[in-house]
Protein backbone atom coordinates (compact mmCIF):
# COMPACT_ATOMS: atom_id res chain seq x y z
CA UNK A 1 0.00 0.00 0.00
CA UNK A 2 1.55 3.26 -1.11
CA UNK A 3 0.67 6.75 -0.02
CA UNK A 4 -0.57 8.83 -2.92
CA UNK A 5 2.18 11.37 -3.71
CA UNK A 6 -0.32 13.80 -5.25
CA UNK A 7 -2.12 14.17 -1.93
CA UNK A 8 0.04 16.11 0.52
CA UNK A 9 -2.01 15.16 3.57
CA UNK A 10 -1.36 11.45 3.12
CA UNK A 11 -5.04 10.61 3.48
CA UNK A 12 -5.18 8.55 0.27
CA UNK A 13 -3.42 5.30 -0.60
CA UNK A 14 -2.85 3.43 -3.87
CA UNK A 15 -3.92 -0.19 -4.18
CA UNK A 16 -0.81 -2.32 -4.89
CA UNK A 17 -2.75 -4.65 -7.22
CA UNK A 18 -4.80 -2.35 -9.46
CA UNK A 19 -3.44 1.13 -8.74
CA UNK A 20 -6.78 2.65 -7.71
CA UNK A 21 -6.57 5.62 -5.32
CA UNK A 22 -8.37 4.86 -2.05
CA UNK A 23 -8.92 6.46 1.32
CA UNK A 24 -6.53 5.28 4.01
CA UNK A 25 -9.31 3.93 6.25
CA UNK A 26 -10.56 1.44 3.63
CA UNK A 27 -9.96 -2.23 4.48
CA UNK A 28 -10.56 -3.47 0.93
CA UNK A 29 -9.94 -2.04 -2.52
CA UNK A 30 -13.27 -0.99 -4.02
CA UNK A 31 -12.06 -1.89 -7.51
CA UNK A 32 -10.31 -5.29 -7.26
CA UNK A 33 -11.31 -6.46 -3.76
CA UNK A 34 -7.76 -6.80 -2.39
CA UNK A 35 -7.66 -6.73 1.41
CA UNK A 36 -5.52 -3.81 2.42
CA UNK A 37 -3.26 -4.14 5.46
CA UNK A 38 -3.19 -1.65 8.30
CA UNK A 39 0.55 -0.98 7.93
CA UNK A 40 2.23 0.28 4.81
CA UNK A 41 3.49 -2.51 2.59
CA UNK A 42 1.33 -5.12 4.26
CA UNK A 43 -1.19 -6.76 1.97
CA UNK A 44 -3.48 -9.60 2.95
CA UNK A 45 -5.09 -11.48 0.05
CA UNK A 46 -8.83 -11.83 0.19
CA UNK A 47 -9.98 -15.40 0.59
CA UNK A 48 -12.12 -16.63 -2.30
CA UNK A 49 -15.87 -16.49 -1.79
CA UNK A 50 -17.60 -19.76 -0.95
CA UNK A 51 -18.78 -21.54 -4.06
CA UNK A 52 -21.94 -23.55 -4.39
CA UNK A 53 -20.63 -25.71 -7.19
CA UNK A 54 -17.48 -27.70 -7.76
CA UNK A 55 -15.74 -26.33 -10.85
CA UNK A 56 -13.35 -29.29 -11.09
CA UNK A 57 -15.92 -32.04 -10.76
CA UNK A 58 -16.36 -34.68 -13.41
CA UNK A 59 -18.38 -33.64 -16.46
CA UNK A 60 -22.08 -34.37 -16.55
CA UNK A 61 -22.77 -37.69 -18.23
CA UNK A 62 -25.40 -37.72 -20.93
CA UNK A 63 -27.28 -40.43 -22.77
CA UNK A 64 -25.35 -41.64 -25.79
CA UNK A 65 -27.36 -40.57 -28.88
CA UNK A 66 -26.84 -43.81 -30.81
CA UNK A 67 -28.13 -45.85 -27.86
CA UNK A 68 -31.26 -43.74 -27.70
CA UNK A 69 -31.70 -43.96 -31.49
CA UNK A 70 -31.36 -47.74 -31.20
CA UNK A 71 -34.19 -47.87 -28.70
CA UNK A 72 -36.39 -45.66 -30.88
CA UNK A 73 -35.65 -47.72 -34.01
CA UNK A 74 -36.41 -50.92 -32.12
CA UNK A 75 -39.78 -49.57 -31.01
CA UNK A 76 -40.59 -48.27 -34.51
CA UNK A 77 -39.73 -51.68 -35.98
CA UNK A 78 -42.36 -53.30 -33.75
CA UNK A 79 -45.04 -50.64 -34.08
CA UNK A 80 -44.81 -49.27 -37.63
CA UNK A 81 -42.29 -50.66 -40.11
CA UNK A 82 -40.92 -54.13 -39.46
CA UNK A 83 -37.59 -54.66 -41.24
CA UNK A 84 -35.32 -51.67 -41.86
CA UNK A 85 -35.63 -49.99 -38.46
CA UNK A 86 -34.75 -53.34 -36.87
CA UNK A 87 -31.44 -53.40 -38.77
CA UNK A 88 -30.80 -49.78 -37.74
CA UNK A 89 -31.61 -50.70 -34.11
CA UNK A 90 -29.03 -53.48 -34.18
CA UNK A 91 -26.28 -51.37 -35.77
CA UNK A 92 -26.91 -48.27 -33.65
CA UNK A 93 -27.18 -50.32 -30.46
CA UNK A 94 -23.85 -52.04 -31.03
CA UNK A 95 -22.14 -48.76 -31.95
CA UNK A 96 -23.71 -46.98 -28.97
CA UNK A 97 -22.59 -49.66 -26.52
CA UNK A 98 -19.05 -49.53 -27.87
CA UNK A 99 -18.96 -45.77 -27.45
CA UNK A 100 -20.34 -45.99 -23.90
CA UNK A 101 -17.67 -48.55 -23.01
CA UNK A 102 -14.99 -46.39 -24.62
CA UNK A 103 -16.02 -43.16 -22.84
CA UNK A 104 -17.84 -44.13 -19.62
CA UNK A 105 -17.07 -40.76 -18.01
CA UNK A 106 -19.08 -38.93 -20.70
CA UNK A 107 -21.89 -41.30 -21.74
CA UNK A 108 -24.55 -43.43 -20.13
CA UNK A 109 -27.58 -45.26 -21.55
CA UNK A 110 -26.27 -48.77 -21.98
CA UNK A 111 -29.73 -50.12 -21.12
CA UNK A 112 -31.25 -48.15 -24.03
CA UNK A 113 -28.77 -49.76 -26.41
CA UNK A 114 -29.40 -53.26 -25.02
CA UNK A 115 -33.18 -52.90 -25.31
CA UNK A 116 -32.79 -51.54 -28.85
CA UNK A 117 -30.60 -54.50 -29.80
CA UNK A 118 -33.06 -56.98 -28.29
CA UNK A 119 -36.06 -55.36 -30.01
CA UNK A 120 -34.22 -55.20 -33.35
CA UNK A 121 -32.99 -58.80 -33.16
CA UNK A 122 -36.41 -60.08 -32.13
CA UNK A 123 -38.07 -58.19 -34.96
CA UNK A 124 -35.54 -59.42 -37.52
CA UNK A 125 -36.00 -62.97 -36.30
CA UNK A 126 -39.79 -62.64 -36.55
CA UNK A 127 -39.58 -61.17 -40.07
CA UNK A 128 -37.20 -63.89 -41.29
CA UNK A 129 -39.29 -66.69 -39.75
CA UNK A 130 -42.44 -65.12 -41.17
CA UNK A 131 -40.89 -64.84 -44.62
CA UNK A 132 -39.71 -68.46 -44.50
CA UNK A 133 -43.17 -69.63 -43.43
CA UNK A 134 -44.70 -67.63 -46.26
CA UNK A 135 -42.31 -69.15 -48.79
CA UNK A 136 -42.95 -72.67 -47.46
CA UNK A 137 -46.72 -72.21 -47.58
CA UNK A 138 -46.56 -70.82 -51.12
CA UNK A 139 -44.35 -73.68 -52.27
CA UNK A 140 -46.59 -76.31 -50.66
CA UNK A 141 -49.69 -74.82 -52.33
CA UNK A 142 -48.22 -74.64 -55.78
CA UNK A 143 -47.09 -78.27 -55.62
CA UNK A 144 -43.38 -77.99 -56.38
Provide a compact summary of the structure:
With 144 residues, the protein is mainly α. 47% of the residues lie in helices and 11% in strands. The chain folds into two domains: 1-45, no CATH class; 62-142.
Structure, described:
The chain is mainly alpha-helical and 144 residues long. It has 2 domains: 1-45, no CATH class; 62-142. Helix content is 47%, strand content 11%. It contains 3 helices and 7 strands. The strands form 3 sheets. It has a 3-stranded antiparallel sheet, with no helix packed on it. Strands 4-5 form a two-stranded antiparallel ribbon. Strands 6-7 form a two-stranded parallel sheet. Helix 1 (65-79) packs parallel to helix 3 and helix 2 (84-102) runs antiparallel to helix 3 (110-142). The longest helix is centred in the C-terminal third of the chain and has 33 residues, at 110-142. The model is unreliable at 1-8 (pLDDT under 50).
How is this fold's topology laid out?
Blueprint: E1 2-3, E2 12-14, E3 21-23, E4 35-36, E5 43-44, E6 62-63, H1 65-79, H2 84-102, E7 107-108, H3 110-142
Parallel strand pairs: 6-7
Antiparallel strand pairs: 1-2, 2-3, 4-5
Helix pairs in contact: 1-2, 1-3, 2-3
What oligomeric state is this? Answer: single chain
- Which blocks of ≥5 consecutive residues have pLDDT under 50? 1-8
Q: Counting H and I runs of at least 4 residues, what is the number of helices?
A: 3
Radius of gyration: 35 Å
Structural class: mainly alpha
Tally of separate domains: 2
SSE order, one letter for each helix or strand: EEEEEEHHEH
Rounded average pLDDT: 81
Number of strands: 7
Distance between the termini: 106 Å
Strands in their spatial order, largest beta sheet: 1-2-3
Biggest pleated sheet: 3 strands, antiparallel
Percent of sequence in beta strands: 5-15%
The percentage helix is: 40-55%
